[in-house]
Specification:
Layout lengths: L1 H31 L10 H55 L6 H22 L19 E3 L5 E3 L8 E4 L2 E3 L5 H5 L2 E3 L2 E3 L1 H12 L7 H58 L3 H26 L3 H5 L1
Antiparallel strand pairs: 1-2, 3-4, 5-6
Helix pairs in contact: 1-7, 2-3, 2-6, 3-5, 5-6
Length: 308
């Protein structure tokens, strides 16, 4: 009789424990909306979900990189728009400087404005991006350009900036190095950068800058060719920025679609049918209540009750 009573209590305790555990699990599934709460619930699907989560993390990082690249490209375009305005203003001054009606004071005033344009160009060339690195400095951690005591401006960056990964095997060059944008300009058989071109023009117009009117005329002709080539460089760079921006827009849409597809597939794999879960919970709770009531009643019976 002792063995039978112990078995009775143990079996009913296990039954009620199983029912309580099932009810708790169903309640958690309803609360979280997830069918799979632990890997043991479905090892195969859990492993698949883990692989998907790793891929989704990569996609999230790529999406973040796309936004970073878009921001840097936007900064580059804004900077080059400023450069365009400065070079166009230099061209306007150049045209006016060709007039024979100007005197030394007029040309000196133009030279002063051209020197101010050089200052603007130098400041723009040393613009930093959203990461705090030089926008046109390539892979260098420091500034892109430096200025010597005599006013000479030189590139002190290094190479090209590393491309930014925006997808599996997909990268984008978010910025251009200074020499690509501001340098490599052929003027009268000599390679110059925009700083040298504008500075030489300012020097030619300043008091004592040109030995003769013929020298000044040649300096203006060289500056005209140089400024035109510099603007072409900048326009080419801006066109490239636009093309890269369009690529990033396409990549951003692709990543957004992939993220949406992931959410749908994950929901299909681990999602729970709320209505069915609620029904199962109600059934489980009724069974548990009935079992508890039955256990309470039977556990209170005496030996004489069993004999009867």
């Amino acid at each position: 009789m002792k063995i039978g009573t112990a078995y009775f209590f143990d079996s009913r305790n296990r039954q009620m424990g199983d029912l309580s555990g099932l009810a708790a699990k169903l309640q958690e599934q309803i609360a979280t909306g997830k069918r799979i709460l632990t890997p043991s619930d479905d090892p195969i699907i859990s492993a698949r979900l883990a692989r998907m989560a790793g891929g989704a993390a990569d996609q999230t990082q790529f999406a973040s990189n796309v936004k970073l690249a878009q921001s840097i490209l936007g900064q580059s375009d804004t900077a080059l728009d400023s450069v365009t305005n400065d070079l166009q203003r230099a061209q306007e001054l150049l045209v006016r400087a060709g007039s024979d009606t100007l005197n030394d004071d007029n040309r000196a005033a133009m030279a002063a404005e051209l020197k101010s344009i050089v200052d603007n160009l130098y400041s723009t060339a040393n613009t930093t991006d959203v990461r705090g690195t030089a926008l046109f400095g390539g892979s260098s951690a420091g500034p892109a350009y430096s200025r010597a005591a005599d006013g000479t401006i030189s590139f002190v960056g290094q190479g090209e900036a590393p491309p930014i990964p925006v997808g599996d095997g997909v990268t984008v060059q978010a910025s251009d190095s200074g020499p690509r944008v501001f340098g490599g300009i052929q003027v009268g058989g000599t390679t110059k950068d925009v700083f040298k071109i504008v500075s030489d023009l300012a020097k030619a117009l300043d008091v004592g800058g040109s030995a003769t009117p013929a020298d000044r005329k040649q300096a203006l002709a060289d500056a005209s060719d140089g400024l035109a080539a510099a603007l072409e460089n900048v326009n080419t760079a801006r066109a490239s920025i636009g093309a890269r921006g369009a690529r990033l827009d396409i990549q951003s849409e692709s990543l957004a679609k992939a993220a949406n597809d992931y959410d749908i597939e994950r929901g299909n794999l681990e999602g729970v049918d709320i209505q069915a879960a609620v029904t199962d919970l109600q059934k489980t709770m009724l069974t548990l209540q009935a079992t508890q009531a039955s256990f309470t009643k039977l556990s209170q019976l005496s030996l004489f009750d069993y004999i009867r």
